[in-house]
Design a protein that fits this description.
The chain is mainly alpha-helical and 171 residues long. The chain has six helices and two strands, in the order ααααββαα. The chain has one domain. 74% of the residues lie in helices and 4% in strands. A hairpin with a 3-residue loop joins strand 1 and strand 2. Helix 2 packs parallel to helix 6 and helix 4 packs antiparallel against helix 6. It starts with a helix and ends in a 13-residue tail after the last helix.
């Protein structure tokens, strides 16, 4: 199981790298667009739409890796002041709720993607593309976040009966 977890971690690291590359691309694209507009060359008309779509991809590509690294948003002040066994129970509750939510969003995202594909829906903005292309990454990434919740629950089961030590608040 540990080898599977390590391999999965490498996949999530690759997705984080892809998210970083997209963020760099957005930054360069916006900078180039502004430069071109300011020198009177008209700019890049597709830059706003490409930036919006890329930012969406950055968010969902990075989510599983950030959860794995415990770098997601987490308010754990309460977990630090309650008895350790109760905090451990809350950790379980949070992971189970997270897994259920990921399952729902993956299922719903898949339904939306398939419906868009079946309907032949097209997104017409500056760029024209099949709408399902925009939706397709969502169910996959939520499935991957759900898988990470399973790995987190495995680690929690093997850990001391207290709140996770790897995810601490800034306070």
């Amino acid at each position: 199981m540990q080898r599977l977890s390590d391999a999965y971690g490498r996949l999530l690291d690759a997705l984080l790298l892809a998210a970083c590359a997209l963020l760099l691309g957005i930054t360069l694209l916006i900078g180039l667009d502004v430069l071109l507009r300011n020198v009177g060359l008209g700019g890049i008309p597709q830059s706003n739409e490409l930036s919006e779509d890329s930012l969406y991809l950055v968010t969902i590509l990075a989510a599983p890796g950030l959860l794995r690294r415990s770098q997601h948003i987490r308010v754990d002040i309460l977990l630090r002041v309650i008895p350790p066994r109760i905090a451990w129970g809350f950790e379980w509750f949070g992971d189970v709720v997270g897994l259920i939510c990921c399952g729902f969003f993956a299922w719903y995202g898949l339904r939306v993607t398939l419906a868009s594909y079946a309907a032949g829906s097209i997104s017409i903005k500056t760029l024209i593309m099949p709408e399902w292309w925009i939706f397709a990454p969502m169910p996959l990434c939520f499935l991957m976040v759900g898988i990470e919740f399973i790995f987190r629950m495995r680690l929690l089961a093997l850990s001391p009966r207290e709140a996770r030590a790897d995810a601490v608040s800034a306070s």
